[in-house]
Amino acid sequence: MNISVIIPVYNASEFLEKAVDSALQFEEVKEIVLVEDKSTDNSLEICQKLGLKDSRITLYQHPDKGNHGAGATRNLGLEKAACEFISFLDADDYYLPNRFEAEKEIFKEQKVEGIFGAIGIEYLSEKGRKEFQDKFKNISLTTVNFPAEGEDVLKGLLGLTSKMFGTFFHLNTLTLRKSALMKNNLRFNENLRVHQDSDFIIKLAYHCYLKSGVIDKAIAIRGVHDNNRITKIIRYSPQYNQRQSLLWKSLNDWADSNPLPPDCKRKIYLTYKSFDLSLKTGFNKYLCTFIEAIKNPQIIKTQYRFTYLNR
Fold first, then answer.
1. Nearest CA to 199 among 250, 253, 265?
2. Cα–Cα–Cα angle for 203, 196, 111, rounded to 5 degrees
3. What percentage of the chain reaches a pLDDT higher than 70?
């Protein structure tokens, strides 16, 4: 295997070198693509020093040297990556020694275009730990609950399997054939400043044949610290609803132009409308109504008769 590891860099000076070193440990990693997004700390200087450390490390910035967000930054990395396989790593996280263990065997199956696994957690500050646990309880492993591949991955991510599939798998655990991305013209939605990873993963699960790899133990570690954006937003707050509405609108627009299975289209549409309505009304009770309707289709048939449910 030959792998390009794409690392978007923004204000990560404290963690960046550890992230890069964790990728350099693998013979399969032939290239580390650092894409610096106009940090306000000394991340750019560290990137430049790392580039002198190993010939596998290349550094890029946006043409205007500006800040464009994680989506655009990863897209630039995809454009520059030269290897047959692509993997991602956040600059405040790191790989474990078993990171590409499953890939060596599973990618021998030509139909498999992407492999994902489980990610663990390291608390880097007490404040970060408290914020994370307040939002996600005592989750120590972000993973899926059972092996899956093909369409079952898409349906699992949308909550349409007979048993709970689990949480979204993390980009840090995803390895892809670059040819599959190019064939399907898959990129991150640059209009989403947050959740562009969730948007990308759901679209990827439809367009590409994904298969689970190591899901019972961590293959990478997510660093939890004071500045993790995902822990700052209170669930079902106006800001949370706004960000979720933007995510599901992006997915709904995409679903309208692709022949997804009907149950997948319906789930995306209902989820989008739930957040959109909650945002417009300011009342979370409507959101709860839609979530219950999505969980139990019988409710749609009997108690709640919204005309757009039959769209």
1. 250
2. 30
3. 85
Looking from the CA of 144 toward its CB, the CA atoms found within 13 Å total: 26
Tokens standing for 52? Answer: 């002198």
- Which of 79-83, 116-120, 281-285 has the least mean pLDDT? 281-285
CA dist 300 to 163, 256, 287, Å?
21, 21, 14
DSSP 121-186: EEE-SHHHHHHHHHHHTT--EE-BSS--BTHHHHHHHTT-SSS--BSPPPGGG-EEEHHHHHHTT-
Chain centroid to CA 132: 17
215 against 302, higher pLDDT: 215
Coil, helix or strand at residue 41: coil
Which is higher by pLDDT, 227 or 196?
196
For 59, phi then psi, to 5°, come to -120, 135
**Is the CB of residue 161 less than 8 Å from the CB of residue 152?**
yes
Q: Which amino acid is at 126?
A: E
> The pTM is what?
0.87
Give 120-179 pLDDT, tens digit per residue: 998 887 777 777 767 667 778 999 999 999 999 999 999 999 889 986 899 999 999 999
Domains and CATH numbers, the chain: 3-231 (3.90.550.10), 238-310 (no CATH)
Contact 15, 27 (CB under 8 A): no
For residue 233, pLDDT over 90 is answered with no
> Are 158 and 268 a contacting pair, CB within 8 Å?
yes
Q: Quick one: how far is CA 110 from the chain centroid?
A: 24
Helix (H, G, I), strand (E, B) or coil at 109: coil
The Cα–Cα gap between 178 and 78 comes to 8
- Six-digit token pair at 39? 């940090």
CA distance 223 to 245: 27
How confident is the model at residue 133, as a pLDDT?
Answer: 67
